[in-house]
Specification:
mainly alpha; Growth Hormone, Chain: A; globular
């Protein structure tokens, strides 16, 4: 930690819940509300999946522009700019009619808004990594992901209900936009951190070189490399949630708008948040990588259990509740894995590298599951999700054995 960070008492982690809400809510609005309505407005399952796929693509590519947050402006300024852009983006999405004809325009808006929205996450990650003491990693991870997944539930569930019931769809986007802007008030609880180039008195070129030095030092350790491998594998992705949201898939269990809005919306947010706190508690007591791998296996078992259950609404509700709990556990463990590996230097870029690795399987697994659901139904899709999770755990165990036998240092030198 820098001197100015040490002088400032770390805030209560609920600050990160509030700050991360716009990131989660925008993703939930796209992945739940718009995705569900897609098949209601003439889109196929695959076409509806591309709405969320466009958003996930930006989260996969964000490592390209992540160094900007570490080398320019300040984390607070980046957060403010990105939150304003996200507010405008969600307002634009809700104002575009959902149809085959407007699909290209809507995907374009989603791409731009999601790109800007990635800066919300990066700026928080930069602040969080610099002010979080090592013994608070599990606790902070829980509150941080509670904002992400809770926001996803609110943006998805409340967003869906408002789109269906307000007189005009644009009103939904306007309400969420105002809520996003209010989240900026939570910045007052955090210190005025500068980007690291300013602290070192370095120019942009030297700052960028230092970012790559920090990245090399992180990946060149057993812990850093194993964390990267774990993030890259299809473990604990929660990708089935986006497909289960679609009206045509939910109909397999006899579930309609009410059931989807309930278990994929606010209830999912609450259950995800509960899973986050349980995951954070486990990461305080056990190695975060071990917790993440165990939760990934549990998520695969939850998907298989739902697939084997009877095709009735109760199975859809209970299955989604258990799956949502598993997603919360996995996401909190992921954040703990990353914070444990990255340290404070070039935090936005290093966190984003891991997030990019983890978003890649979420992206391709989500699209694959949509195609499987289209050809083999919801049960086949869940079996595919479970199979990928088990394969991922097996590959990680093999990688662990290989890395432990290498000559890489366990951790980077301080």
């Amino acid at each position: 930690m820098s001197a100015q960070t040490q002088a400032h008492r770390p805030p209560h982690p609920v600050v990160y819940t509030i700050l991360y809400f716009p990131f989660g809510a925008l993703g939930g609005f796209i992945g739940v509300a718009l995705t569900f309505l897609g098949t209601r407005h003439g889109l196929s399952i695959s076409e509806s999946a591309f709405l969320n796929g466009a958003s996930m693509m930006m989260n996969w590519l964000k490592w390209i522009w992540a160094p900007l947050v570490d080398t320019t402006l300040t984390p607070k300024r980046w957060y403010t700019i990105a939150t304003v852009g996200s507010a405008l983006g969600i307002a634009a999405m809700s104002a575009i009619p959902l149809s085959q004809e407007t699909l290209p325009m809507l995907i374009g808006v989603i791409i731009v808004a999601s790109l800007i929205n990635t800066m919300v996450g990066m700026s928080i990650e930069a602040m969080m990594a610099q002010v979080t003491p090592p013994d608070q990693i599990g606790r902070v991870s829980a509150w941080f992901q509670a904002g992400n997944l809770g926001g996803t539930g609110i943006g998805g569930g409340i967003g869906l209900l408002l789109l269906e019931r307000l007189p005009a769809p644009w009103m939904t986007g306007a309400l969420f936009g105002v809520a996003f802007l209010l989240c900026c008030l939570a910045l007052r609880a955090l210190p005025d951190l500068k980007h690291e180039a300013s602290e070192r008195g370095a120019g942009p070129g030297a700052a960028m070189r230092q970012v790559f030095v920090d990245l090399k030092g992180m990946i060149g350790t057993q812990g850093g490399l194993l964390s990267a491998i774990l993030c890259f594998l299809p473990i604990g992705t929660g990708a089935a949630q986006g497909v289960l949201t679609q009206a045509e898939v939910a109909a397999h269990w006899g579930a309609g708008e009410t059931e989807v809005a309930m278990v994929q919306g606010v209830a999912a947010g609450v259950i995800n948040a509960l899973g986050c706190f349980m995951g954070g508690w486990l990461c305080i007591r056990y190695t975060p990588r071990a917790v993440y791998a165990a939760m990934g296996l549990s998520l695969a078992l939850a998907a298989a259990g739902m697939a084997l259950g009877p095709a009735i609404p109760q199975t859809y509700i209970v299955g989604n509740v258990i799956y949502s709990l598993g997603v919360g556990l996995s996401y909190a463990a992921f954040t703990a894995v990353v914070l444990d590996a990255i340290g404070a230097g070039s935090a936005a870029t290093k966190y984003t590298l891991y997030a990019t690795l983890s978003n890649f399987p979420i992206w391709w697994v989500g699209l694959l599951l949509a195609f499987v659901a289209e050809s083999h139904g919801g049960e086949g899709m869940l079996h595919a999700e479970a199979g990928l999770g088990v394969i991922g755990i097996a590959l990680f165990l093999l990688a662990t054995v290989a890395v432990r036998r290498s000559k890489l240092p366990v951790r980077a030198e301080a």
